Amino acid sequence: MFGFARKKTPPATAQTAKDRLQILLAHERSSSGTAEADYLPMLQRDIVAAIRKHVPIGDKDVDVRMERGDNMSSLEINIDLPAVKSN
Question: What is the CATH number of the domain that holds 72?
């Protein structure tokens, strides 16, 4: 009866992004190493789309890099955010 007054909870975009990253990294670890070229562009597009919901940025404002070591792989994401306008 009063369900219309309840505010719907927004999707947990941070958790979704984290889950996707974990899946992609697990896939990368199990593959021969050629997967990096396959999923990094898709990952970059997903990250840009998620950030665009809150901040106006372009595709070239996000840099995604993968570094592989013997025991660890790291994913580096650099985002060039626009300057905040002061009133």
Answer: 3.30.1070
57-69 pLDDT, tens digit each: 887 887 878 777 7
From CA 9, how far away is CA 14, in angstroms rounded? 14
Q: Write down how long the chain is.
A: 87
Examine residue 85 and state whether it is found in any structural domain, yes or no. no
Domain interval for residue 27: 12-79
Tokens of 16: 């979704």
Q: Is the pTM of this model over 0.85?
A: no
Q: Which bin fits 26, alpha (ψ -120 to 50), beta or left (φ > 0)?
A: alpha
Look up residue 3 and give its DSSP letter. G
| Structural domain total, the chain | 1
